[in-house]
Amino acid sequence: GPGQQLEIAKSGNVATAITTYSSGVSDGGALYLQKSDSDTLGTHSLVDSGDVLGYLIFLGSDGTNYDQAAYITATVDGTSGAGTDMPGRIQFYTSPDGSATPAVRMTIKNDGNVGIGTTTPWGLLAAQIPAGAGSNSLTLASTTPSGGTDTHLVVTKAGNVGIGTASPGRTLSIDATESIIQMTSAFAGAQYEIGV
User: Fold this and answer.
1) How far apart are the first and last CA of the chain?
2) Residue 115: CA count within 13 A, CB half-sphere
3) Cβ–Cβ under 8 Å, residues 150 and 142
């Protein structure tokens, strides 16, 4: 990201507030991060696809220097044009343990598609496991009253799907204590169940 041009330093907690006093429903504090492709102050030049419009950077001291833990970028995501054509994407980066180099974790494209583990989501929500990452690409679970975890659905890196199991060993693994499949007829009101 860019180097520092302004620093606000103070011992203890530091907070910056933007406060708006208004009865209007759409009025509120705002922070603008703007970019022109012109090198001359106060002039406009059309930005290009891939131009970063702004950063939010989070750093922590390692005892000697400030290292990056995470940051967020907003970038032009396509060809912009005069008037009201400014496609954008937002990307979220975090540093893994043992590193101070953030890697992109989530991307929101100009069409609204969200990618987790991929910067080119092919649908409204796309998740891809990077090389060397964990074994599961999707896990749906709930917390038990005792504080444990009940796993409901798992999709592994190998493509196996588990229902009621956290470690499916086949293309589809179902672990159920009751009926596995239940079908209900809308006409007769009858139910059909397949058990174990």
Assistant:
1) 57
2) 19
3) yes
Structure tokens at 22: 């208004």
**CA–CA dist 46, 79 (Å, integer):** 10
CA distance 57 to 179: 51
Please, which residues have CB within 8 angstroms of residue 9's CB and are 6 or more apart in sequence? none
The pair of three-digit structure tokens given for residue 13, joined into one six-digit string: 């907690």
pLDDT tens profile 24-81: 888 888 888 999 999 999 999 999 999 999 999 999 999 999 999 999 999 999 999 9
Q: Is the pTM of this model over 0.85?
A: no
Q: Are 107 and 118 in contact (CB under 8 A)?
A: yes
